[in-house]
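Let us work through a complete example step by step.
Step 1: write down the sequence.
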Amino acid sequence: MSFSKIASWMTARRLRAQGFILALCLWSVYVWNMSTPGLLDRARNLKGTDFLHFYTLGSLALSHRGADLYNLQAQSELAARRIPAAAGIRYLPLYPPQVSIFFAPFARLSYANALTVWLSLSALIYGLCCYAV
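Step 2: predict the structure and record it as tokens.
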């Protein structure tokens, strides 16, 4: 197929439609995976696993445990104590102290509520960025 044929086939309308279908498929799979009750998804992984580290750092800031900001073992134990489903999950402590201060307000909430707020804010910011583009 020549370049001109491909270029004529890839209209803005078709690209928008394909992008919409792709987004719909990806988001449908995500919603289906996360729609299980409790903190574990269908694969039995903790929901919001990436957020767990930030939540733990915020917990350290709230309890004034600055010395543990770079202690892998202390963070792993704290995460397992606050969220039993997180037992065995470990993250390398690489973030600067400011991150723990930023996430301290989230750590005042339960993990499920903090994750809901975080995902809602992330979706809002993402939507605003998409709208701006």
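Step 3: interpret the result. The two ends are 31 Å apart (CA to CA).
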